[in-house]
Amino acid sequence: MTLFNVRMRAAQGGAHEEGGIHISGGERLVDRAELTDAVSALVDRALRHEAGDADFINVTIDRIEQHQVVSIEALPIRTEYATDAEEGRLAARRLLESSGVDASVAAFGVTLLANGAAPGGRVMRGAAIVGALEAMRLEPDRARGVRVAGIDWERQTLDTWRALMTADGLARPRVWEALALASKVVAQPDVVAELCWSDDPSYVTGYVASQLLGYVRIPHLKQRGDALGGRIFFVRQGVDIADLIHRLEVQPAWIDRLP
Ligand code: AMP
Predict the structure, then answer these.
(1) Distance 220 CA to ligand 1 centre (A)
(2) Separation of CA 23 from chain center
(3) Which atom of ligand 1 has the smallest separation from the CA of 22?
(4) What are phi and psi of 23, to 5 degrees?
(5) Do 84 and 181 belong together in one domain?
(6) Secondary structure of residue 50 in the 3-state scheme
C-alpha cells in the first residue's frame, strides 16, 4: 500500500525562516483515499489556531511505501489527579522522577516550559531535548527544536481505540494525536520520558509519558490564558542525537497495536 506523509506548519509575519512567529503545525500519515481530507483538515487547523492569524502556511506531502513504516504499540493511558497548575507541575516532576529522570532535571524541565523554551521566552516550534541525568539542552536549534513527524494511527486500530475510550470522554483528536506522538517518542530506546503541555491558552491539560508509566494525563499543568507550553524529550547519556532526531522526524511509523 502507498501512504502519504503530510506535514503542515503555519506562521505569522512571514515564513519561519524569515522571522515569522510559529502559529501551529501538524503531521499525518494517510492512504490515498484520506489524503485530500487530511490536507484540508490541517489547513483548517492552521487558520483557526488561537495563537493568531496565520499568513504563511506550508504543506508538504511525501509519498512512501508501507514496508518503510515502523510498527508501534499505543501507550496505555491514565489520568493523574491534580486540581491546579501547582499540583499538576508537582505531579509531573514526580512522574518524571519515577520514569528515571533526575529530580533536579525534572524541576529544570518544568521551569523551562513554564518560562518559554525558545529564545526570548517564546514557544518552540518543536521539542527540546534534555539529558535525563544532567540539565543540559541537546537540540541543535532552540527555536525550532525537534518536530516529530511521520506518525499516525492505522485506521482500524484507531477505530478500536476510540470505541474503548468513548466512555472516558477521551476519544478526541487532541488526545489520540498526542498519544500517537508520545508513543513514537518513548518507543525510542534512548528516550527516558516526555513532558508536554500545550501552548494553546485554553487547553491546560498535559502529560508525562514513558515506557515505565505509559501516558499519564495531568488535568492542570498551567493556568487558563497562559500562552506558553512545549515538549521536552529526556534522553539517556551518550545518545546519538543526530540519529535520534532522524528517527523522530523522518522515520515513518504508525500505531497499529493496542496495549
Ligand atoms: P500542542 O499540544 O499541539 O499544543 O503542542 C504543544 C507544544 O509541543 C508546541 O508548542 C510545540 O513546542 C510542541 N510540539 C507540537 N507539535 C510537535 C511535534 N510534532 N513534535 C515535537 N514537538 C511538538
Answers:
(1) 17
(2) 15
(3) 10
(4) -105, -50
(5) yes
(6) coil
Does the reported pTM lie above 0.85? yes
Domain count across the chain: 2
| 127 Cβ closer than 6 Å to some ligand 1 atom | yes
Confirm or reject: Cβ of 148 under 6 Å from ligand 1: yes
Per-residue pLDDT of the chain in tens (259 residues, 90 and over written 9): 789 999 999 999 988 888 888 888 888 889 999 999 999 999 999 998 777 789 999 999 999 988 899 999 999 999 999 999 999 999 999 999 999 999 999 999 999 999 999 999 999 989 999 999 999 999 999 999 999 988 999 989 999 999 999 989 999 989 999 999 999 999 999 999 999 999 999 999 999 999 999 999 999 999 999 999 999 999 999 999 999 999 999 999 999 999 9
Range of the domain at 201: 71-257
Report the candidate in 160, 196, 164, 192 with the shortest Cα–Cα distance to residue 179: 196
The three-class DSSP label of residue 170 is: coil
